[in-house]
Every structure is written in structure tokens, then in C-alpha cells.
Amino acid sequence: MTPLVVLIVDDDARNRKLARDVLGLAGFETCEATSGERAIAVAFERLPDVILMDIRLPDLDGNEVLRHLKADLATARIPVVALTALTGAREALLEAGFSGYIEKPIDVREFAADVRRHCPAG
Questions:
Q1: What is the per-residue pLDDT for 120?
Q2: Which residue intervals of the chain are DSSP H helices?
Q3: Count H helices, E strands: the chain?
Q4: CA-angle at 52, arms to 120 and 112, nearest 5°
Q5: What gap in Å lies between CA 49 and CA 68, rounded to an integer?
Q6: For residues 34 and 56, is the Cβ–Cβ distance under 8 A?
Q7: pTM score of the predicted model
Q8: Distance CA 96, CA 86 (A)
Q9: Does position 104 have pLDDT exceeding 60, yes or no?
Q10: Fewest beta carbons less than 10 Å away: which of 6, 52, 93, 107?
């Protein structure tokens, strides 16, 4: 069976490593981006099963990246989950079109299951 591919978008190396390690142990394949522009490029290259999107990025913010992805037929159906330390933003992010919300710091015991729930094969 082909592993599910998760694009991790975060400009913090420690956050990316933790997410990559936890998801790798759970059998996911991961790819990464450290900026909004790179996230868009990687999403088009890899067409991941789900995208974990930090909101605060050095160039485009996560909301702008989401709009770019949803505007193109190639990437519009990919679930994009907000992965953020922003508190109290859950409802606004869901209303903006994110498929879900995972708060940082992540709970390593629940993280892989949380991500799997957002994958199309679910």
C-alpha cells in the first residue's frame, strides 16, 4: 500500500522535524516547505494527500497560500489543515476554508491520528 503523503509547511525547523518524525513513525511519507511560495510549488509537484499549514510564514501567510491552492483545480481538493500556535483562531481559520485545525505544540500521542482523520482515505 502506498503511504499517504503529508506536506508540512512551517518555517521553524524544530516544528518540521517533530512533525516529520512523528508522521514517519506512523507510516506517512512527508515533504516540507519553509515558506508560502515554496508550499505552493511543492503542493503542485507532489499533490500530497493533506497539507499541514502554519499560518505565520515569512512571505505569504497560510491564508494566502490556502487561497492559491483552492483557486487551482490541481490542488483545490487537497485538505489543508491549519497547524498553528495562534490561540482563539480556530473558528476564523475554519471559516476561511481550512479543512481542520491542529494546535501547536502538537500532542505527539494524537498527532498522527489527527492528521489521518483529514486525509481523503480518512
A1: 82
A2: 13-25, 36-46, 62-70, 90-96, 111-118
A3: 5, 5
A4: 70
A5: 17
A6: no
A7: 0.96
A8: 15
A9: yes
A10: 107
Grid coordinates given for 106: 502538537
Encoded amino acid at 85, one letter:
A
pLDDT band at 121 (very low <50, low <70, confident <90, very high): low
Contact predicate 58/66, CB 8 Å: no
Residues constituting the chain: 122
Collect all residues with Cβ–Cβ distance below 8 Å to 20 and sequence separation of at least 6.
Answer: 8, 30, 32
Please tell me what DSSP assigns to residue 8: E
HSE of 10 in the Cβ direction (CA atoms, 13 Å)? 23
**pLDDT tens-digit series, residues 31-84:** 999 999 999 999 999 999 999 999 999 999 999 999 999 999 999 999 999 999
- Torsion angle of the four alpha carbons 45, 70, 97, 33, in this order, in degrees rounded to the nearest 10: 20
